[in-house]
Amino acid sequence: MSAAIAKRDIRRSFGAAAAGYDSVAALQRRVGAELLARFDVSPAAGAIADLGCGTGFLTGLLLGRAADRPVYALDIALPMLQAARAKWPAGVRYVCADAERLPLADAGLGQIYSNLALQWCADLPALFGDCRRALAPGGQLAFATFGPGTLVELKAAWAEVDDYRHVNAFVSGAEIRDQLAAAGWHDGDIVSRTYSTEYAAVADLMRELKGIGAHNLNADRKRGPTTRLQLRDMIAAYQALMPDARIVASWEILFVRAYR
Fold it and tell me: Where is the Methyltransferase type domain (predicted)?
């Protein structure tokens, strides 16, 4: 899968999810709130950017802490930006852009935040380098992203059906640390935390993934639609993994902070 196709797919997936995103994004709100609780806005910092702002949950929290400093909200999907602008029409500068190609001046920011968005970027080392370019000396990058322990139950269930990759692959904390170091960042903090969410049925989990735009974008994913038989077998395998009637999904969240 080429980078161009990947970007097109990401833009389409999240653009289509914008209208109903907030109704299914409870995890994103929990993680965004914890990100700021762990790595709060510095009162001495300059302008603040929210990369992959989505419908603006983290943007609103940052705006409340900005103390009249400029706040930039960037997203690759225009419908997401439009949803964010509807919530925060004043005080935020909205930019429709790819996080891997930041249209921001050198050393123009004091802090960059991102909540569960950077896992969709194809070239994290390049992104970390560009974020470093856009931050002033001493600036902070703080983000939350999915780790490899995310949706392990769903991965295991699909593994009982076929050999394709049905769940997106995510990098580890060790890989992120190495990539940040290679891009010239100073050592910061990387904390892993696993969230668990419960669903009445596997179908509810699948609807949530669709609702937040988290489609399978792996190059080795199965091409063509999943058949009803395959979906039935996956659901049966998932239910067999559960110790009781509950359907549980795990999400490994990596909270990361690094300094320019």
Answer: 50-143
